[in-house]
Design a protein that fits this description.
- The structure is a homodimer.
- By secondary structure, chain A is mainly alpha-helical.
- The first copy, chain A, has six helices and three strands; from the N terminus they run H-H-H-E-H-H-E-E-H.
- Chain A binds a DNA duplex (30 and 30 nucleotides) through helix 5.
DNA sequence: GCAACACCCGTACGCTCGTCCGGGTATCCA
DNA sequence: TGGATACCCGGACGAGCGTACGGGTGTTGC
């Protein structure tokens, strides 16, 4: 370990310290992003964003994924408060929650598609 | 396992199948988001976004984090091509890469701060 | 040159996440 | 009412991530 005894640039350290989010806020941000940072969950959200409502089995069909994987993804998304379920008989339909955060939908989902397509890796 | 023998709503499945990103693209998206989905890395990016350039030790000071944690975060960020390093003597300065993706900076960093502050958990 | 410094690297450990598997509940059809 | 369907839930397993530690490289100052 080699801790700085004295800061090299005290001014910048002070300015950075003011603007950097607290550790708690950073953890909250990381939790939100971690929910999206999974292929299955992201594709589930894209599918629901495209066709409004789908049941679990159809979702697995549309994604070519196992029903277990989709079920787990939906559980996590539900725990994060991003999707809602509606029971119609023995079928459970899922959709994006009404107040789905617009920034996530616009940028972290749609804009990110173009980003990943456009730039492979510098 | 209970695979759907027939889709409940074949039309919506077909439409969703067209619009959902492929598994490969979803993995690429998840990789990008996973880099941001870490408190230390997110705070490092915020600090560099605020004051342009900082060395490792000052960065650890500004974040109240161990130098190991910051060093590992910087290694990951460098591997993802998001930061650059400049050696000045025995001090190494880091800054955001020139072509830092604007969507990430604008929305996944700045907008997400407001998002996490506004809504704790529905 | 020698010592101290700033930082990097590889390894080992602990922990969480995602998947698989078995059983369970509620619903529909015959 | 019995069986099949659609889905949920629990624990078990393997894999990957983040942290801590020890040793290493290059640089500065005496």
């Amino acid at each position: 370990m080699a801790d700085h005894v004295h800061p090299v640039d005290a001014d910048r350290v002070a300015r950075a310290r003011e603007r950097v989010p607290s550790r708690e806020d950073a953890v909250a941000m990381a939790d939100v992003l971690a929910v999206l940072a999974d292929p299955t969950r992201a594709r589930v959200l894209h599918a629901l964003d495209a066709v409004e409502e789908l049941c679990v089995g159809d979702l697995a069909l549309a994604l070519d994924a196992s029903e277990d994987a989709v079920g787990y993804a939906l559980r996590v998304l539900r725990g994060a408060g991003l999707v809602t379920n509606r029971k119609a008989g023995r079928v459970v339909f899922y959709r994006l929650v009404a107040g789905f955060p617009a920034p996530l939908r616009e940028h972290c989902l749609r804009a990110l598609v173009d980003l990943t397509r456009g730039e492979p890796a510098p």
